Input
Amino acid sequence: MDPHGLARPDLVLIITYVAISLLGLLMIYSATAPGLEARGLDPTRELKAQAFFVLVGFIVFAIVSTVDLTEVRRFVGPIYIGSTLLLVVVLTSLGDSEGVAQRWIDLGPIQFQPSEISKIAVILMLASLLARSGIPLSWRTVARGILVVAIPSALIFLQPDLGTMLVFAFVLLAVLFVGGMTMRQLGFLTVATIVGTVGVFQLKLIKSYQIDRLTAFIDPGSHELTLSYNQVQSEIAIGSGGLVGKGLFEGSQTNLQFVPVQSSDFIFTAVGEQFGFIGSAIVIGLFSILLFRLLSIAVAAKDRFSFLVVAGVASMFAFHIFINIGMTIRIMPVTGLPLPFMSAGGTVFVAMSAALGLAHSVWIRRRSPVADQ
Output
């Protein structure tokens, strides 16, 4: 540690983050170049766009890593309120829609998705709330935590974005659990969630296309050419990769654009087809290292607030990774959640870089000079 009490950077975390990001760029290029070239367009167009956001994300990660979370805590309220107001703006005429969803704010050359920023704001607000509470958590604290998540969740439900709502629910449960929730409180939340879910379906508050996705997941054989088409093609792509894959730029499913939205939601199929089981295992291994480092940072946090923030960030990443990869191999329904640092998308890359930067900041200022790893 240096004379100012700061530890050396977590090189394992940084190298893993950079490796996943660069691999993501390669997969995005391999998934988009053939189609763009076939249309007479610049085959590197999507690569260049994502490379810009990767560069911005790296800069954001570096800057946020220098920020002391104890200082950030003073602004948690305004950050939460500001992100919530942006979710309101999305639902107005200023919001930009694609298909049935209205989730973006158009900023000219780019689209900004406030829900990605809201994930960080919710984690910070939850951590701040629970850090002031004793252990075990009181029912009042649990109720306030639910309210913190419920407000942005309701706004996101109106977009609609069921995938992000599920992220919020999982983060809430994870942070409450590590924050000192009792088993009785956990049981109550579980029952309330089941009752609420049944109520939402009974009142027909879920959009028809969202119900169709669940129906297709439960009975894929009846929808192979329609609702299950994305996942069917995804399975074919990954399965055809075999043990070592077909080779970079050699995947027929990828080259012929059989997998819809492959550069974003289904980017893992490009890995599976081109690099096979071994390549897929390496990618999952990289994500496992990332999650392990986050958990290690949480344990080494110097205060309860920092611990809860990193725990929230780790749970957010874990949920995204599990759901996205599970979606591509058809063990989870399609939700539209991106694969961190690999899926195409500017806001999500920068926001997740900022979240990782917060965790890295905690490591640099950890409570004791634990051996650098």
Remarks:
- Residues 6 and 365 are 5 Å apart (CA to CA).
- The chain has a mean pLDDT of 87.
- The chain has two domains: 1-66+207-361, 69-205.
- The longest helix spans residues 267-300.
